[in-house]
Amino acid sequence: MKASYRHQNALISRYSAILLVSTVVISGCATTQSSSAPARIEIQQEVGFTITEETKINGDVRLDYDEALAYLRQGRLEQGVQMLEAVVEAAPQLSAPRIDLGIAHHRNGNLDAAETSLLQALESNPDHPIAHNELGIVYRKTGRFAAARQSYQAALATYPGYHFARRNLAILCDLYLADLNCALQNYEAYMSTVPSDEEATMWIADIRQRMGQAE
């Protein structure tokens, strides 16, 4: 069965959620082969981006993936992780289930497993902005701030309007790297996309005040 795995990230979607917008579009005939075409990243500047992976898989794998995402929507992380691990084993060439698995591990408090899954996703899809952003969060939580910065920047290199990564980079520069210029630049870029974030507005004012005092 030929399936298109699509990860979409719209500018209005919620941060740190399991990738509930992952969808599977089925076409072609049934097969048990596991071949994969290169992922396509389509940028829609006003609404976000879509990443599509096409592969041939057993129909049961698609059903297992749908079931795994349903578990995650319901907050049943253990069941979701178990099902995603089975999907990853059956279709190792796909990055989408590995990213979902990494985020699920992260939410379940297993940062080592989250990192492993996200790195494996990037092996098959090196430019995936969601994987880079999520990996940056793991790096930040484990004290690897320079690596976190590189991961956020990698996400933004693919999609500069990815406001979650922009906000994460601004916070990293502000609170962990003491790089106020980086923080201000990225907060302002973030606010151009999400102008209603009152918290970020206060952070910008605070940074400008600190920069003025430093001068």
Arithmetic mean pLDDT: 80
Which term fits the overall shape? elongated
| Computed CA radius of gyration, to the nearest angstrom | 18 Å
**What structural category arises from helix and sheet content?**
alpha+beta
- Counting structural domains, the number is 2
What is the rounded distance between the termini?
63 Å
Profile the largest sheet: 4 strands, antiparallel
Lateral strand order in the biggest sheet: 2-1-4-3
What fraction of the residues are assigned to beta strands by DSSP? 5-15%
Q: What is the tally of beta strands?
A: 4
Amount of helix? 55-70%
Give the ordered list of helices and strands.
Answer: EEEEHHHHHHHHH
Supply the number of helical segments.
9
Low-confidence residue ranges: 1-35
Overview features:
disordered N terminus; 13% strand; 4 strands; elongated; single chain; 215 residues; 59% helix; alpha+beta; four-stranded antiparallel sheet; Serine Threonine Protein Phosphatase 5, Tetratricopeptide repeat; 2 domains
Sum this structure up briefly.
The protein has helices at 59-73, 77-90, 96-107, 111-124, 129-141, 145-158, 163-176, 180-193, 198-214, and strands at residues 2-10, 23-27, 40-44, 48-56.
